[in-house]
Design goal:
This protein is of the alpha+beta class and about 300 residues long. It folds into two domains: about 140 residues, no CATH class; about 120 residues, Yope Regulator, Chain: A (2-Layer Sandwich), CATH 3.30.1460. It is built from eight helices and twelve strands. A hairpin with a 5-residue loop joins strand 3 and strand 4. Helix 6 crosses helix 7 and helix 6 packs across helix 8. The longest helix is centred in the N-terminal third of the chain and has 17 residues. It starts with 13 loop residues before the first helix and ends with a strand.
Length: about 300
């Protein structure tokens, strides 16, 4: 008796189409990148700009192999949360957004496509989604200089959405005003050339926070935090409290609650001192004590994962 062919759908059948779509979806799921900005010196700031910084811009350094026609500014969010736009001016400037309305599972590829798009499109155009960019597959390290950090400008409003000297239309002005009213004051702590990661302060209203995006391996960083916690050193001094940590884009971000009466600049020295203590804890290879193990378990139980 011949083998049944019931499980072999015809190429033009609906079932064949469904199976093909299922395979495509599975392939897409397998392409999810857990640490999309790895290999870039600006990795920690890129993560911060994508996840929690309200308003900031940075002129990026493009890779030497990219045939760049115009400069590119990376922004936290653009009007309408579009992926990119090219501002019409005497010398057009490309803008790409970190926080976008539509995104894939690979934000680095999205950003690379958006940057490449700014080099070929006409001034005045905008790109709703990186998926709409008619460019070949790009790797972010092929369009950005991987060794360059971000030359950041932190804004306390969204007035930079409109070029200087331009009078916005009433609807645009109303949108900017609404966004300005909702913004939370933020700043990037400058902890010195030897500092690790990206430490960002924000005044959230009832209290302030310090979110410190760290590049270390998650397990190694969690162990170091546990050692400090067990020793009573997991803090930034008076007026601070360790609030927990969250994972995002393959990195761990410790968070501290702060006294909002103190300005961001007043936390630079305490944060730098904590960074030194953390570096020592990271360098330790001593076996964990029972207290440190309990501290690690407690810290892990308070983690959340954003993406």
């Amino acid at each position: 008796m011949g083998k049944s062919k019931r499980n072999s759908p015809k190429p033009d059948s609906n079932r064949a189409q469904r199976l093909a779509e299922r395979r495509a979806a599975q392939e897409q799921a397998n392409q999810v990148v857990t640490r999309p900005f790895a290999g870039l010196a600006a990795e920690c700031d890129l993560v911060a700009l994508r996840e929690f910084v309200p308003s900031a811009t940075a002129t990026v350094k493009l890779a030497p192999q990219l045939s760049a026609e115009r400069p590119v500014t990376l922004a936290t969010v653009l009007p309408g949360a579009v992926a990119a736009l090219v501002r019409a001016a005497a010398e057009p400037i490309g803008f790409v957004g970190a926080q976008v309305q539509f995104q894939s599972d690979n934000p680095a590829a999205d950003l690379a496509a958006a940057i490449a798009w700014t080099q070929t499109t006409e001034p005045g155009e905008s790109l709703n989604s990186a998926a709409e960019a008619e460019v070949g597959a790009k790797v972010l390290t092929e369009v950005l200089d991987p060794s360059a950090s971000l030359d950041l400008t932190v804004h306390q409003d969204f007035n930079w959405w409109v070029p200087e000297g331009v009078q916005p239309e009433p609807q645009v002005a109303a949108t900017i005003e609404q966004a300005n009213q909702a913004i939370m004051p933020s700043d990037r702590l400058q902890l010195g050339a030897d500092s690790i990661g990206a430490a960002w302060w924000v005044d959230a209203g009832e209290k302030a926070h310090l979110r410190w995006v760290r590049p270390e391996d998650e397990d190694a960083l969690m162990l170091a935090l546990a050692r400090l916690h067990a020793a009573g050193d997991l803090h930034l001094g008076e007026g601070s409290r360790f609030a927990g940590s969250f994972r995002t884009h393959g990195l761990l971000v410790p968070v501290f609650d702060l006294d909002r009466e103190q300005h961001a600049s007043e936390w630079v020295k305490p944060a730098a001192e904590f960074g030194d203590r953390l570096a020592q804890a990271l360098a330790s290879d001593a076996p964990m004590t029972s207290i440190e193990r309990r501290s690690r378990d407690g810290l892990r139980s308070r983690q959340v994962t954003l993406r």
